[in-house]
Amino acid sequence: GPIVVWIRDDLRLDDNPALAHAAETGRPVVPLFVLDEESKGVRSLGGAHKWWLHHSLEGFARSLRGKGSQLTMRRGKAKEHVLDVIEAVGATALFFNRRYDPASRSVDDAIEEALSDDVSVERFSANILHDPESVETKTGGYYKVYTPFWKNVSETGFRDPIDAPRGLKQPDAFPRSDDLGDWDLLPTKPDWSGGLAEFFTPGEKAGQERLEYFCDDLLAGYHNGRERPFADETSRLSPHLRWGEISPFRAWDTANTYASRRKSIPGDAIRTFRQELVWRDFNYHLLYHFGRLETDNFNDRFDGFEWRNSKKDLQAWQRGLTGYPIVDAGMRQLWQTGWMHNRVRMIVGSFLTKDLLIDWRDGERWFWDTLVDGDIASNTAQWQWIGGAGADAQPFFRIFNPITQSEKFDPKGDYIRTFVPELKDLPSTAIHAPWEADESTLAEAGVTLGKTYPKPIVDHGEARQRALDAYDKVKG
Ligand code: FAD
After folding, report:
1. Residue 396 pLDDT level (bands cut at 50, 70, 90)
2. Does 97 participate in catalysis according to the annotation?
3. CA angle 194, 196, 197 (to 5 degrees)
4. Measured from the CB, is residue 235 less than 6 Å from ligand 1?
5. What pTM did the predictor assign?
6. In the prediction, which pLDDT does 281 show?
7. Which intervals hold domain Photolyase/cryptochrome alpha/beta (predicted)?
8. Residue whose CA is closest, atom 15 of ligand 1?
9. Which listed residue, 62, 264, 390, 428, has the most CB atoms within 10 A of its CB?
């Protein structure tokens, strides 16, 4: 009988083990996507997510048609729709690639349990390089800190990526499908997606092109360039990885192949790229083993932490109006493009949780709504980490200084000038902390603090002390 291949965050034909293995059997294949925001514990998508997903599904459905197949799209509780489609086509097997967050795992388990014995279920590993069961500490637990995790896995070899299936056999009839347009995933009033579309093209094909471009043009300098927020020197593969348009095995294999062929790509560059892909895995392992990463402090000492409740400050941060140019540039890059450079994510994260003393969960939620790569593992784990509530490698008392960070990573102020245009005429000596500049410098650049650009909403020195005092109460 036919095989239903249930597609989730793996919107690709290339290196998609569930799809490839189904195709190999020679049996009819029914690809199914369910937009599930209703099952217990499953999060609704953010605004930027929806925009991305719409375009990604469009491209994926097109690619499937090119293979003689068709994507069935449903919206609602996954269990209802998966069981319904299995029945409608008389499927005798359900194939899918594993998911790792607790809510999705329970959905997957519940479906497997509900199926009768004549429908077999096969799960594949596709979306992270190391399955959570495959990495253990010496005492049999899981790693809570990245560096020892990296040391453990840094020499592991990976399976080869699997090529896209050549064709997919059709069932007698495809099941009923929704129209993507009826899901209203695209923003309309207003349509704020222009900036996102300028910066990114969703879909497998664009992801593959970006991967090639990165390996060809950027990889050789990646280990040096990745800390420069003003330059396009990172892979920007994060949304493609988030939606599974690119498999991490393919990303690694392609980069590694380039590195082994080209002497101009130093060992440091390829190692750094691998380390970043492993960060992603590490976050998934934390989520898998710890579970409630999105709600519960990884370090439970923080359960009694006195976060400040300030809607006004939270809004100033969200809108990029804190008066700290590097923070504001980051928040506006996020709003305009759906993405933010990693260094700046750390700066704005530290600023929210330490300078403003606002709960990391508020930052996480905002990122979730605005990032195209907002990822249940990486976003929650990285917010816990930067907010100090995560593992001890980034203790709370390590507080970023937004001015020295800005001077160090955006020395000429190019990044700030791009996203905070009202400061663009300030010289680089004044752009990192305009409130310290003299009147004539500001006047020449057309800047009036408090009018054309805000005064800092907190004094970093005082805010730092306030954060340390709050931390003293929980540090035990
Ligand atoms: P590159 O430097 O080219 O790295 C290659 C790939 O490695 C990335 O695409 C990404 O998949 C992975 N990667 C790199 N750094 C990290 C990291 N620190 N953690 C996990 N994976 C990493 N990343 C997300 O994918 N989704 C998120 O929701 C997310 N939220 C974050 C929130 C905060 C507060 C912070 C500090 C970081 C967050 N990151 C998140 C990690 C990181 O900022 C992005 O993965 C990275 O900026 C993506 O850009 P890139 O693809 O050009 O990265």
Report:
1. confident
2. no
3. 65
4. yes
5. 0.98
6. 98
7. 1-129
8. 276
9. 390
List the helix and strand counts (H, then E) for the chain.
Answer: 21, 5
Test site for ligand 1: of 280, 347, 370, most ligand atoms within 8 A of the Cβ: 280
Contact 11, 244 (CB under 8 A): yes
**334 Cβ contact partners less than 8 Å away, ≥ 6 residues apart:** 340, 367, 370, 371
Q: What is the mean pLDDT of residues 454-459?
A: 98
ipTM of the complex: 0.99
Cα distances from 313 to residues 19, 130, 316, 462, in angstroms, run 47, 40, 5, 16
User: Is the pLDDT at 84 greater than 80, yes or no?
Assistant: yes
How many beta carbons lie within 10 A of that of residue 140, not counting itself? 6
Domain 128-157+201-290 CATH assignment equals 2.40.50.1020? no
Report pLDDT for 79: 98
**Homologous superfamily of 3-126:** HUPs (3.40.50.620)
What pLDDT is attached to residue 68? 96
382, 401, 398: which is closest to 390 by C-alpha?
A: 382
Q: What is the mean pLDDT of residues 270-293?
A: 96
Query: Looking at domain 300-474, which of 2.40.50.180, 3.40.50.720, 1.10.579.10, 1.20.1440.20 is its CATH number?
Result: 1.10.579.10
In this prediction, residues 179-191 reach a mean pLDDT of 96
**pLDDT tens by residue, 415-438:** 999 999 999 999 999 999 999 999
Domain positions in the chain = 3-126, 128-157+201-290, 300-474
Cα–Cα distance for residue pair 381/403, rounded to 1 Å: 25
pLDDT at 408 over 70: yes
Cβ(382) to ligand 1 under 6 A?
Answer: yes
The pair of three-digit structure tokens given for residue 110, joined into one six-digit string: 């519940």
Query: Please, which residues bridge with residue 72 across strands?
Result: 32
Q: How far is CA 295 from the centre of its chain?
A: 17
What does the pLDDT read at residue 328?
99
SS3 73: strand
CB 326 within 8 A of CB 411: no
Q: Quote the pLDDT of residue 340.
A: 98
Q: In sequence order, what are the beta bridge partners of 93?
A: 3, 120
Degrees to nearest 5, angle at CA 348 with 345 and 351: 145
* 101's tokens: 């967050």
Please work out whether the CB of residue 223 comes within 6 Å of at least one atom of ligand 1.
no
